[in-house]
C-alpha cells in the first residue's frame, strides 16, 4: 500500500496523518506526506515540524514534502489543491489517499473541504476522509 | 500486531447490492484482516424510492429482495474468514447509515462510489458524499470498477 497524506495544518489533517501512519504500519506500506501551499513561511515550518513529530512517534521514515507549485492566492483557485493531489497520485502511482475532511476556520474549511470533495468525486483512487 | 485491537473492531460496509462494490468489499476485508475487525454489511431500502414504508418489518421486506442485497459482502467476507453481521434497514440511506454508525460504535466506513448507472448512480454517489461529509468516523471511499469509472460525475 502506497499512501499519500496531504496535510494543511488543521487538527483534522493531523488526525488524518495519524490514521495514515497507523494504516501504513499495519499494512507494511509506504507513506508520503505533502503540504500544498503557495506561501512558505514560519507557518509551513511549524506544520512540517508537527508532521515530523507524528511520523517519529509512529516510527515512520518519511520527509514531508512541501509542494508550492500552486496558485492559491485567490479562493477561486481553492479547488486547485484537490486537482494537485490527483496529479501527484497519478504521477507517482499512490494507491490510497488519506486526508482530513476540512481545515480549521472558515477559509481553511472551504479550502480543504473542497479539496477532499474533488479527490472523492474524481473516482480515481481509494481515499479515506478523516473528520 | 503492533497494538492491541480496538482501533477498528467494527467496520461498516454500506452496500447498494450491485456487483460494482467488489473493490470496496475487498478493501474492507483487507483492513478487517489486519485489525481483526467485524464487518457490518448494511443495505438500506430507500423509502423515498419504493412503496415500502419505514413502519414495515425489515425481515419481511428482506424476504422480498432477490438476490439478497448483502450477499456479495457476506459471501466475500465469510470466504476470507472475517466475522460479518448483515442488516437490512428501511429509511433514507445516508441518515440510516449515520444512525447505524452511532448505534453500533462503527470506527471505519468503507463504501464504493458509483453504483449501477444513470440516475441511480447519481443518487447513490450522493449517499457516499453525504456520509463522507457528515460522519464523525473515517470514511474510505473506493471507486467502483464499472465501465465508466474515471469519468466525471
Q: Could you write a compact summary of the structure shown?
A:
The complex is a heterodimer of chains A (131) and B (153). Chain A is of the alpha/beta class.
Q: What would you say this structure looks like, in words?
A:
The complex is a heterodimer of chains A (131) and B (153). With 131 residues, chain A is α/β, with parallel strands linked by helices. Chain A is built from four helices and five strands, in the order βαβαβαβαβ. Chain A has a five-stranded parallel sheet, with helices on both faces. Chain A starts with a strand and ends with a strand. With 153 residues, chain B is of the alpha/beta class. Helices cover 38% and strands 22% of the residues of chain B. Chain B has a five-stranded parallel sheet, with helices on both faces. In chain B, α1 crosses α3 (71-79) and α4 (93-103) runs parallel beside α5.
Low-confidence stretches of chain B are 1-5, 147-153
* Oligomeric state: heterodimer
**% residues in beta strands of chain A:** 15-25%
What string, H for helix and E for strand, traces the elements of chain B in order? EHEHHEHEHE
Average pLDDT of chain B, rounded to a whole number, is: 83
What radius of gyration of chain A results from the CA coordinates? Answer: 13 Å
Per DSSP, the total helix count of chain B is: 5
Proportion of β residues of chain B? 15-25%
Structural class per helix/strand content of chain A?
alpha/beta
Overall mean pLDDT of chain A stands at 80
Shape of chain A: globular
Strand order of the largest sheet of chain B: 3-2-1-4-5
Largest sheet of chain A: 5 strands, parallel
* Widest sheet: strand ordering of chain A: 3-2-1-4-5
The best one-word shape of chain B is globular
Pair with the most extensive interface?
A: A-B, 21 and 29 residues
> Terminal Cα separation of chain A, in Å?
22 Å
What's the helical proportion of residues of chain B? 25-40%
Kindly report how far apart the N and C termini of chain B lie. 40 Å
Number of strands of chain A: 5
Amino acid at each position: 500500500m502506497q499512501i499519500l497524506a496531504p496535510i494543511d495544518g488543521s487538527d483534522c489533517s493531523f488526525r488524518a496523518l495519524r490514521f495514515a501512519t497507523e494504516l501504513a504500519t499495519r499494512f507494511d506500506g509506504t507513506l508520503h506526506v505533502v503540504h500544498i501551499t503557495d506561501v512558505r513561511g514560519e507557518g509551513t515550518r511549524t506544520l512540517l515540524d508537527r508532521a515530523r513529530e507524528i511520523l517519529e512517534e509512529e516510527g515512520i521514515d518519511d520527509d514531508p514534502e512541501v509542494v508550492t507549485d500552486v496558485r492559491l492566492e485567490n479562493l477561486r483557485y481553492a479547488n486547485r489543491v484537490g486537482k494537485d493531489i490527483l496529479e501527484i497520485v497519478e504521477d507517482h502511482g499512490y494507491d490510497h489517499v488519506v486526508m482530513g475532511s476540512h481545515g480549521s476556520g472558515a477559509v481553511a474549511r472551504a479550502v480543504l473541504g473542497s479539496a477532499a470533495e474533488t479527490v472523492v468525486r474524481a473516482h480515481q483512487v481509494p481515499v479515506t476522509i478523516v473528520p | 500486531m503492533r497494538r492491541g485491537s480496538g482501533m477498528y473492531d467494527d467496520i461498516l460496509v454500506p452496500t447498494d447490492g450491485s456487483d460494482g462494490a467488489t473493490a470496496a468489499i475487498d478493501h474492507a476485508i483487507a483492513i478487517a484482516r489486519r485489525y481483526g475487525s467485524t464487518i457490518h454489511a448494511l443495505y438500506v431500502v430507500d423509502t423515498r424510492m419504493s412503496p415500502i414504508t419505514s413502519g414495515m418489518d425489515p425481515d419481511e421486506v428482506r424476504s422480498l429482495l432477490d438476490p439478497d442485497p448483502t450477499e456479495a459482502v457476506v459471501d466475500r467476507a465469510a470466504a476470507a474468514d472475517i466475522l460479518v453481521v448483515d442488516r437490512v434497514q428501511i429509511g433514507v440511506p445516508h441518515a440510516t447509515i449515520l444512525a447505524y454508525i452511532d448505534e453500533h460504535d462503527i470506527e471505519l466506513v468503507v463504501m464504493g462510489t458509483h453504483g449501477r448507472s444513470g440516475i441511480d448512480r447519481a443518487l447513490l454517489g450522493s449517499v457516499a458524499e453525504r456520509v463522507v461529509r457528515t460522519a464523525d468516523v473515517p470514511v474510505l471511499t473506493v471507486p467502483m470498477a464499472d465501465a465508466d469509472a474515471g469519468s466525471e460525475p
